[in-house]
Amino acid sequence: MPANRSGVALSDPAWMRWLLIGTALAFLALFLLLPLVAVFAEALRRGFGAYWAALVEEDAVAAIKLTLIVAAIAVPANLVFGVAASWCVAKFDFRGKNLLITLIDLPFSVSPVISGLIYVLLFGLNGLMGPFLKAQGIQIIFAVPGLVLATIFVTFPFVARELIPLMQEQGSEEEEAALVLGASGWQTFWRVTLPNIKWGLLYGVLLCNARAMGEFGAVSVVSGHVRGYTNTMPLHVEILYNEYNFVAAFAVASVLAMLALVTLVAKTVLEWRFGAELAATRHK
Amino acid sequence: MVAASSTDTAFPRAGGAVTSILRKPSVIPGFGLTLGFTLTYLSILVLLPLGALIAKAGGLGWSGFWNAVLTPRVWAAFEVSFGLSLVAAAVNAVFGFIVAWVLVRYSFPGKRLVDALVDLPFALPTAVAGIALSALYAPNGWVGKPLNELFGLKVAFTPVGIAIALTFIGLPFVVRTVQPILEDLPPEEEEAAVSLGATRGQTFRRVVFPAVLPALVTGFALSFARGVGEYGSVIFIAGNMPGLTEILPLLIVIKLEQYDYAGAAAVGTAMLLVSFVMLLVLNLLQTWMRSRHAR
Fold first, then answer.
1. pTM for this one?
2. What value of ipTM does the predicted structure carry?
3. Which of A30, B8, B53, B99 is the most buried (most CB within 10 A)?
């Protein structure tokens, strides 16, 4: 009997193969492909002119700018945190390490709405620190800082959870060698560690960025929906949709959908080209 | 500063490092810096705000908390959110398993593309998914119209619509937890079963399925947990009728808009508690299954 997986004994009969492939493809087409196609079809329903007009309209441009600003602060912040957290988790043994890893993952199991709510309860006008902030003239909720905080929370674990297993797997021998040969700590990080983790880091940043730009629930709670001022792209989509301005809503949504497609392509290329250099926990 | 301390310590400890590599010797600098930064960042951005939530809910007192949570409207939202997330997770467990199976075991044209597409719900912003599903399943939409005309089935603005949105959002969790386990399944076990005279069905039931079941349960739990908290993809298709199609996260938003901060905190805390208890139960179930399978 052949020992490989494609052996006769383990190959399913053709009718069953095609039945299962057909079922899987039909399910994916209905649930994943069709919504994606619908976004672009609805956006272009009134032609390219109307599509383009919806994108260069003043509030849409403001929303695009704000989304880029929020991501430009939240993603680097979580990148620095992710590198620091994975350095201390992967290079050292200490008590409470598993608890720390669990806490880092915690934001993923919190509903996006609760992720926004907690900042409202802390920094909002009636919140714990509300009176103090008001006295200082600082506004966090219903302003850009609140959007940044909520975005940092929902994208908190992305870089760290990609780097921790990768750095644990790589061990510390190379860093030890560099240090023994007289390199400083920073030199070791920049010249030895960073080149080893760069693809995993990029992978984490990619996923972090996609979520940061696309987040809806958390930023919706802290934004206050001030048009042209605290509306990110996903929030702008909601406003347009609720005003029955469907073409404009789907036009802005199509930009976000393209961001998702670019993210998927880049992610697939990274997995394909540098699979061995990404975290071992990731298959392929 | 770091440079000085590392060159100071590198030579005296170099000899020890070789013998105790497994112990991860402290030749590596930066422990205090990175741990300090990690704990500070984590405390300010995650632990302190979550503490504010618990404190606000706790400020209501025991009876105040229950009065805020045990209203018919909140109770109905609990049933909608948890019930429909279970339905969606069950649908995903079945079809996610088939998708994972097909991607691991069979080859067909465009397989790599299909594999990449599975992650779409992770990458597509939830609001975009929400309006797209809403447009598709509306009474005049591409899918909603034929369903309504042929079967009289209304999807958008009913619980069915919510279940569809939650299925969309949860699918990758099942596929991505089952897929690596199927890939690592040693073919020898199945070959042994077949050569001992087992039929295909028996081999699947007795050999393949028990090995994959813990991963399937994990995927189910992740999909379920994601569904309970999901907001963006649901609110557009749900119709948001209090008591019928109003999900818990929306109820929190409504309470916030009415400046009922304590009520929002109470519902949020209750939601977190129930989710954690359910995940704990599923975790225990999974551990139990693993130990049974190992025996």
1. 0.89
2. 0.91
3. B99
